[in-house]
Amino acid sequence: MVKILFTANIQRHVECPETDADGATLGEVLDNAFKENARARAYVLDDQAALRKHMTIFVDGRALRDRVRLSDPVAPSSVVYVFQALSGG
């Protein structure tokens, strides 16, 4: 199973504990992880199931490439880190 970790600053806004989920793509993994946590899903993904602008995800240390369809492949041993992206100047 893919391990999904959420940063502490995300957890200040919404409860999203470390979890494991199955799937061949990041989108499938997140769908499975968020089945029981609709509030976290709405915080991380928009209403089209794309990654929100203020979020970023790394899969096995590599930045997510497909922010819209979340089609990046994952392996059963993958580790997914979900971060709140910083912006500004």
What does it look like?
There is one protein chain. By secondary structure, the chain is of the alpha+beta class. The protein has a single domain, classed as Ubiquitin-like (UB roll), CATH 3.10.20.30. The protein has 3 helices and 5 strands, in the order E-H-E-H-H-E-E-E. It has helices at 8-11, 26-33, 38-44; strands spanning 2-6, 19-21, 55-59, 62-63, 79-84. A 5-stranded mixed sheet has the order 2-1-5-3-4. The termini are far apart.
Summarize the structure.
The chain has 89 residues and is of the alpha+beta class. It contains three helices and five strands.
Q: Please bin the fraction of helical residues.
A: 10-25%
In the predicted model, the low-confidence regions spanning at least 5 consecutive residues are none
Largest sheet: 5 strands, mixed
Tell me, rounded to a whole number, the average pLDDT: 95
Strand order across the largest sheet = 2-1-5-3-4
CATH superfamily: Beta-grasp domain
Helical/strand content category? alpha+beta
- Tally of individual helices: 3
Total DSSP E strands = 5
Question: How far apart are the termini?
Answer: 38 Å
Q: How would the global form be characterised?
A: globular
Strand content: 15-25%
